[in-house]
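Annual report, structural modelling task.

Input specification for the zinc ion complex:
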Amino acid sequence: MGRGRPYTFLMARSMAREQDILKLPAPKRPPRLTSRRIGIHTSIAGGVENAAERAYRLGCNTFQVFSSSPRQWQPYDLSRPQCDQMNRLREKYGLRPLVIHTNYLINLASTTEQFLAKSVEAFRGELERALSLCAEYLVLHPGSFRGASRDEGLARVAASIAVASRGLDVVKGGLTILIENTAGAEYSLGGSFEQVADLLELLRDMVPIAACMDTCHVHVSGYDIVSPAGMKKTLDHLDSTVGFKNVRVWHCNDAKAARGSKLDRHQHIGKGSIGLEPFQRLLNDPQFAHAAFIAETPIDAPGDDKRNVEALKALVKDKPHTLPS
Ligand SMILES: [Zn+2]
Ligand SMILES: [Zn+2]
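The model returned the following structure:
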């Protein structure tokens, strides 16, 4: 990889800078929740099942994890007790959906035969672990088509997913693969709504498929979500290409870089070039009431994860509950 490797939010999400919430006293009462599903990418330190307890303590009712080390190729099998514990905790805390983000090394559009084979094998492992964990969604970056044309790249991704999922009952497992839009760097697939829509079209009859839209990627790839009029236009465009019903997850990340910069640098909610208002409009849009909103914000200081979850929850305008008489 090396040169040209995309920046990932992971670099700024080292647990070393976060105080592990599992080491703090457990909260005395359940967190205040909203009518929206709101969560954050959560550490799997000590075992993937520990993420559920962390997500709950961070105040989430949904969450995202890696199902193995995101920077390593080694196959990783989950044990039955780990999956059972994950299910128990999700049930207990009402954590739904469970979103798994695939390993960053995977490139299902690679033009290097060996790398492609490795990616397909790793993606099959992702599918197997997602099915074992009863996850609802598996988020995939469509990859880089360097060395081929964009259309060849899209076709190769579709073919790779077909090979990787062969013999796995993805439908029965209730799992949907989500294609994530990207920051639009050169050779990266998925930098426009059309490219995401093309992949959904190619894969529709093969596996359950939908989309994950990342606010930072939307913004830095050039779409306007900051001005109210621009956001309306952008969302109309999203609906006419990908379709709102296909957007199952919104990655809620503010951006460090400017609109159109193609630089993928996530920032804390409300602290970047997007600002609070677009998140407020998104969270309160009834057309996305079905979606999960998940932050992948940096960890610069202890407590950042909790603050970012709180920041999103504070933007939801729920009608006050009428008290039973
Ligand atoms: Zn991603
Ligand atoms: Zn993302």
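Strands lie at 37-40, 63-65, 98-101, 137-140, 176-180, 209-214, 247-252, 254-255, 266-267, 292-295.
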